Amino acid sequence: MTATLTRADVVAAASSKRRRRVPGWIAVVPLLVFVAVAFGVPAIAMLNGAFTVKDQTTGATSYSTVNLTDSLQGAYLTALVGSVKLSALAGALGTLLGLPLAQVVVTSRFRALREAVLTASGVLANFGGVPLAFAFVATLGNAGVLTTHLGLKDKGWDLYSFWGLVLVYLYFLIPLMVLTITPALEGLRTQWREAAQNNGATGVQYWRHVALPVLLPSLLGGFVLLFGSAFAAYATAAAMVGSSVPLVTLQIADAISGNVLVGQENVALALSLDMVLVAGLVMAVYLPLQRRSARWLDA
């Protein structure tokens, strides 16, 4: 009996030793496989298509930068610049308007108000596409309820324009900014405000010299997130303004579907690559500042 128990103990110890030898990175393999399939394969396909040129006569394919060159000329360049302008303006306004709203939520003594605003922000930040376009068309369109009752059309208001699209985008960008900047506002130390007041600083001076410099990387991070959301938006603009406002996402859709020219699918992939490069440039500015802000807020 003793010998049997001893052998069992030896087997259990050997099995436990083998389990300990299993490297920990194996648990990450499913995530790596998912990332490779969901992001890696489309990225490789986009790069391959962006540099592939097909002869419309013979059907032969070759690698060239013609698609990238075409994507930075004419109507394609106008659409890319238009998307950058729209996204930058909507992102900046969303950042400026979302910050004070988030500050009110953080400093509010009413827990119900805080929870209601954050819950509503979570819902509105994900409300977009055709339903959002329809809501604004029914409200502020040429025959919308408010447009008719307030006589906005006679005053020059046009929802189906660049500024109309900015207004529609702010509907989901401001709540997104509230959700993004609220944790950073909660990270501001009460001792910093008290130290500033003890040294004779006013509220404006505290925000100018203490709070805003610390929050600046987080604000830039929120702006980058808002910029990316507006830059990649498609369904809302397509349903509301169509081709009246030049946007790169609409140009990509037209190139893929052949609404303007047939056989421009690879130009659409080149436009997608341009979008990735623009987003990469914005992120290159944001990441170093975010690390600097994290050192202050985690101190």
Automatic annotation (TrEMBL):
Keywords: Cell membrane, Membrane, Transmembrane, Transmembrane helix, Transport
Annotated membrane topology: Multi-pass membrane protein
PROSITE patterns: ABC_TM1
DNA-binding recorded as keyword: no
Pfam family, one: BPD_transp_1
Transmembrane segments: 25-47, 86-106, 118-140, 160-185, 214-237, 267-289
Subcellular location(s) per record: Cell membrane
Gene3D superfamilies named in the record: MetI-like
Residue ranges annotated for the ABC transmembrane type-1 domain, each copy included: 80-286
Chief place of localization: membrane
Assigned protein family: Belongs to the binding-protein-dependent transport system permease family. CysTW subfamily.
Name under which the protein is recorded: Spermidine/putrescine transport system permease protein
Natural source organism: Streptomyces pseudovenezuelae
